[in-house]
Write a structure and sequence with these properties.
12 strands, five-stranded mixed beta sheet, alpha/beta
């Protein structure tokens, strides 16, 4: 058994296909496939589930994945202790629901790059359930997700609160709603102002359903994630409801393309942005550094330049 074989399995799991893993590892796909098969024969376990549409980790492979990752991380620590500073640093994969991508994530990654110039950060937009699954499988290192105040937190993850805010109505500056000091739930049902809502599966979709008490506007748009929602508001398509930390300091807000108004009842509940990582196993130093930087940056004020 060679460490490269374990790294190949981890790459296939992270990227979701033999082809993409072969491209990243600069190997031919047949060579990669044969190396993986040799490891499977040695272990007596089918690590990958192979279909015409591609290959993904099998149930048996998923059970062994924490042990594979632990061996890789142990070798990484050994190389670091030996002073091997010239090896190419690993890629960090960060899943995010996008609610605070611009005000928090962008400046944090910019600062991270200054101290980790060869470590790549891949940012992947996804829903909370997808992020949790990828964290457990090891294909994401960190996850940025939202909760409503009072939600139960999953025990499988180490969860650190970054931001806490109130929902606000994000509107175009020319919208009639922008002339109001506050916006009520009834205002959001007005047929003159279409409502832009997040798709089912997002926390803000659940919040809107609660705010409107099951009532539906006469016309609405549905979209994936806060960033597209804000762009639609900037384009004059309607209004949306987002946490204040997602709007304040956004380039669109600073540039005057969007603005926001408080909800008439104060929003009713807080929205939390948290960073999560898997509890089991030790994280590589670069992942720990990025995690700490998110915490420090959020504590110092997410919208600082």
């Amino acid at each position: 058994m060679r460490i490269e074989q374990l790294e190949y399995i981890a790459a296939v799991t992270r990227l979701g296909s033999l082809r993409r893993a072969a491209e990243e590892l600069h190997l031919s796909q047949p060579a990669l496939s044969e190396t993986v098969r040799n490891l499977e024969r040695e272990l007596g376990v089918d690590l990958l589930e192979r279909k015409r549409s591609g290959a993904k980790i099998s149930d048996e492979g998923r059970e062994l994945l924490p042990h594979i990752v632990s061996v890789i991380e142990a070798v990484d620590r050994l190389r670091g202790a030996a002073g091997d500073q010239h090896r190419v640093s690993r890629m960090i994969r960060l899943g995010t629901v996008n609610t605070a991508t611009v005000p928090l994530l962008i400046p944090t990654v910019r600062e991270f790059r200054a101290t980790h110039p060869v470590t790549q950060v891949e940012v992947v937009g996804a829903q909370q359930t997808e992020i949790h699954r990828a964290l457990l499988e090891g294909s994401f290192d960190l996850g940025l997700v939202n909760y409503l105040q009072g939600d139960d937190l999953p025990p499988d993850f180490e969860t650190t609160e970054l931001l806490r805010g109130r929902p606000v109505v994000c509107v175009h500056p020319d919208s009639p709603l922008a002339a109001r000091r506050t916006v009520s739930a009834a205002d959001l049902l007005d047929e003159d102002e279409p409502l832009i809502v997040m798709r089912s599966g997002y926390v803000m979709h659940r919040y809107i359903h609660r705010l409107l008490d099951g009532r539906t506007p006469s016309f609405s748009y549905s979209t994936d994630g806060a960033e597209m929602g804000k762009l639609m508001v900037a384009g004059g398509l309607g209004a949306t409801v987002l946490p204040d930390f997602s709007v304040i300091g956004d380039p669109l807000e600073r540039g005057g393309a969007i603005t926001y108004r408080p909800l008439a009842d104060g929003g009713g509940t807080d929205v939390l942005l948290v960073i999560q990582r898997r509890r089991s196993g030790s994280a590589p130093r670069a992942v720990r550094d990025l995690h700490q930087l998110f915490v420090r940056r959020a504590g110092a004020g997410a919208t600082a330049p």
